[in-house]
Design brief:
- The complex is a heterodimer.
- By secondary structure, chain A is mainly α.
- Chain A has one domain (4-147).
- Helices cover 38% and strands 0% of the residues of chain A.
- Chain A has helices at 4-18, 27-32, 47-54, 69-81, 106-111, 117-121, 131-134.
- In chain A, α3 packs antiparallel against α4.
- The longest helix of chain A has 15 residues, at 4-18.
- Chain B has one domain: Cytochrome Bc1 Complex, Chain D, domain 2, CATH 1.10.760.10.
- Chain B has a two-stranded antiparallel sheet.
- Classes of the chains: A mainly alpha, B mainly alpha.
- The A-B interface holds A 36-38, 58, 61-67, 126-127, 129-130, 133 and B 69, 71-74, 96, 99-101, 103-104.
């Protein structure tokens, strides 16, 4: 029992930590990556996915999100430094290419298994990428079940 | 003397930073070499030109109102200076978004004339 207690405490601490997607402060990221959508948490993709995304910003999901080189490099470094590692897995597709969408990762699928495709297409939601439609506090990095409301 | 130097330096720094919406109209007209037309600007802003979107798809055809990003649904504050004092006050920001949004709507950069026309129209909105 004496040995078990620290192990249990560690487990509790780890699981409380496991779902922390709070955004590390970064002015360039906030300014450049929250104008078209809310801030997607750096922790949700592997470093390789962020690198791939940041190398092709002029064709970013059908829009031009290009940046000057200095900012591009600074934000890429920030994303890589705060990327998910063990938790997200490699975030690659079956062919081994880095996934660019959080919403295509296994982890996202697992967390949203109970939601069917038609729900994601509702006019009030439009896309699985529209996290704020259901997670009221997503922009602040809070995905806690308490603040989830699925709109009609 | 020392103080007046500092004040003068501050003044220069401030005036280099702060642009006004009218400065952009002046700049684009000068680059275009001919006067702007608010009427042409309105047409350019609201009509699709081969692509999926017009400027109005995200900024609405009455840019004194708030818009919404056509793909992500994120709210966008009004683009017309009369309704939003933060608009057209920073050249780097203005140039960046003209580059991106023109690529997204007309698949190329906008000409100086097109930018002058859009500016003239946005400035005329009350």
């Amino acid at each position: 029992m004496k040995k078990l207690l620290p192990a249990m405490l560690l487990l509790v601490a780890l699981s409380a930590q496991a779902d922390n997607y709070r955004l590390p402060k970064n002015a360039a990221f906030e300014e450049e990556c929250t104008s078209c959508h809310m801030a997607f948490p750096p922790q949700m993709l592997h470093a390789d996915s962020w690198r791939a995304m940041m190398n092709d910003l002029s064709k970013h999901f059908g829009t031009d999100a290009s940046l000057d080189e200095k900012r591009r490099v600074a934000i890429a470094d920030f994303l890589v430094a705060n990327s998910g590692g063990r938790k997200t897995g490699t975030t690659r597709d079956a062919a081994g290419k880095p996934l660019l969408r959080i919403t295509e990762t296994d982890r996202f699928d697992k967390k949203h298994r109970e939601i069917n495709a038609a729900t994601f297409k509702r006019a009030s939601i439009k896309s699985p990428a529209n996290c704020t439609a259901c997670h009221a506090q997503a922009a602040a990095g809070d995905y806690n079940e308490r603040s989830i409301i699925i709109p009609k | 003397m020392r103080y007046s130097l500092i004040i003068a330096a501050l003044f220069i720094a401030a005036s280099a930073q702060a642009e006004t919406p009218r400065d952009f109209l002046t700049r684009f007209e000068k680059e275009a070499g001919s006067p702007a037309s608010a009427e042409r600007g309105a047409r350019f802003f609201t009509a699709k030109q081969g692509g999926e979107w017009s400027c109005a798809s995200c900024h609405t055809d009455k840019p004194t109102q708030a818009g919404r990003h056509a793909k992500t649904d994120k709210p966008i504050t009004p683009l017309a200076p009369a309704a939003n004092a933060e608009r057209f006050t920073d050249a780097a920001k203005v140039d960046k978004w003209f580059r991106r949004n023109c690529n997204d709507t007309v698949n190329r950069l906008c000409s100086a004339q097109e930018k002058a026309d859009v500016m003239a129209w946005l400035l005329a909105l009350k």
